[in-house]
Automatic annotation (TrEMBL):
It comes from Actinidia chinensis var. chinensis. This is serine C-palmitoyltransferase. One of its GO terms (biological process) is ceramide biosynthetic process. Belongs to the class-II pyridoxal-phosphate-dependent aminotransferase family. Keywords: Acyltransferase, Lipid metabolism, Membrane, Pyridoxal phosphate, Sphingolipid metabolism, Transferase, Transmembrane, Transmembrane helix. It is an enzyme of class 2 (transferase). It comes from the Eukaryota. Pathway: Sphingolipid metabolism; Lipid metabolism; sphingolipid metabolism. InterPro entries: Aminotransferase_I/II_large (IPR004839), AON_synthase_class-II (IPR050087), PyrdxlP-dep_Trfase (IPR015424), PyrdxlP-dep_Trfase_major (IPR015421), PyrdxlP-dep_Trfase_small (IPR015422). The chain crosses the membrane at residues 26-54. One of its GO terms (cellular component) is endoplasmic reticulum.
Length: 385
């Protein structure tokens, strides 16, 4: 009984204290005409709760670092997510057909793959192969006229230095009702009397080309690229392209640099004449090179050399060509590159050595390059034979 009485007294005393706190004059407040009592008590309670949470120290990092074993286990469990969504069978059946030259560079190959279209190859720069492929696609598919069909080519092929016969391609595209996607990365500022590219070179109206793309890191000496076409095509591209098109847009100063480069070309047409002269001089100097042959077009700024007699293996061919390139750089300070390809690259053309000619090269530069390559190629290939 005494214990119960003591507990009752404590509870009553506590209630009296709480009541006093609520009824104290300084604990009352009037907010918008409404009397609120005990706000100091509530604030005190909140302060206690906040202090309690801070005392838990949950915001501090763990004192013990992860062990090597724990790190290895986390790495084994982690599976990175691909930035490119997987292509399912349903996606592969979307209504697109792409006729693609088998020699296009890796950038076009990857873009074609990501388009999730039906891809059909034709032989490199072979218009008979293109025509027979167009006929087969048109006749074998009853829904062909309802599909969006494109012929994808490069103006100057990076993997061979050859120039596409655009006039013949346009004739075939009009005959079989295809669209043409033309990459002018290596021809802009190079081909044509004023450097306007392959359309000017062949005298084809630019309106007959549905989509023209180009990188600005070649003749324009800047970065980025562009895509042009009819207003309807570009509007569709803006709506359907990847979000990177907007989040990684071209900085203004790079666009300004490209505009300035175009102005320089327009004000100095002799640069195109000088470039053509340099190309002709280098090709002439490499005509009698031992064991190699010029595969590129006579007007192409990409002079492409390949082995006359292949070893039968692309890997072995590339090793020989790399040795030639390395020795030319080491012994004569002549920098040339080999056409290295990744395991994903599906280009079916032979590997080779690429030389990039510009209007800035002098006659002595070109003579030095041709003489160096002829000397080094003779030494390397004679030893191999």
């Amino acid at each position: 009984m005494n214990t119960m009485a003591s507990v009752t007294n404590i509870v009553n005393a506590t209630l009296d204290m709480v009541t006093l706190a609520f009824e104290a004059p300084f604990a009352r407040a009037v907010v918008f005409g409404v009397h609120i009592s005990g706000h100091l008590f509530v604030e005190g309670l909140l302060a206690v709760v906040i202090f309690f949470l801070l005392s838990q120290k949950s915001y501090k990092p763990p004192k013990r670092p992860l062990t090597k074993k724990e790190i290895d286990e986390l790495c084994e469990e982690w599976v990175p997510e691909s930035l490119i969504p997987p292509i399912t069978e349903e996606m592969q059946c979307e209504p697109h057909v792409l006729e693609r030259d088998e020699g296009v560079h890796w950038g076009i190959q990857n873009g074609v793959y990501l388009s999730r279209s039906t891809i059909v190859y034709f032989k490199h720069n072979d218009m008979e192969s293109l025509q027979s492929t167009l006929e087969k696609v048109t006749l074998d598919n009853k829904r062909a006229k309802k599909l969006r069909r494109y012929i994808v080519v490069e103006a100057i092929y990076q993997n061979s230095g050859q120039i596409a016969p655009l006039d013949e391609i346009v004739r075939l595209k009009e005959k079989y009702r295809f669209r043409v996607l033309l990459d002018e990365s290596n021809s802009l500022g190079v081909l044509g009397s004023s450097g306007r590219g392959l359309t000017e070179h062949h005298g084809v109206p630019v309106e007959k080309i549905d989509i023209i793309t180009a990188a600005m890191g070649h003749a324009l000496a800047t970065e980025g690229g562009f895509c042009t076409g009819r207003a309807r095509v570009i509007d569709h591209q803006r709506l359907s392209s990847s979000g990177y098109v907007f989040s990684a847009s071209l900085p203004p100063y790079l666009a300004s640099a490209a505009i300035t480069a175009i102005d320089i070309l327009q004000e100095n047409p002799d640069l195109i004449t000088k470039l053509k002269k340099n190309i002709s001089m280098l090709c002439k100097g490499l005509l009698d090179i031992q064991g190699l042959e010029v595969m590129s077009d006579a007007q192409s700024p990409i002079v492409f050399l390949r082995l006359k007699n292949s070893t039968g293996s692309s890997k072995n061919d590339l090793q020989l060509l790399k040795e030639i390139a390395d020795r030319a750089l080491k012994e004569d300070s002549v920098f040339v590159v080999t056409s290295k390809r990744s395991t994903l690259d599906k280009c079916r053309l032979p590997v080779g050595i690429r030389l990039f000619v510009s209007a800035g090269h002098s006659e002595s530069d070109l003579l030095k390059a041709s003489e160096s390559l002829k000397r080094v190629a003779a030494v390397v290939l004679s030893r191999h034979n």
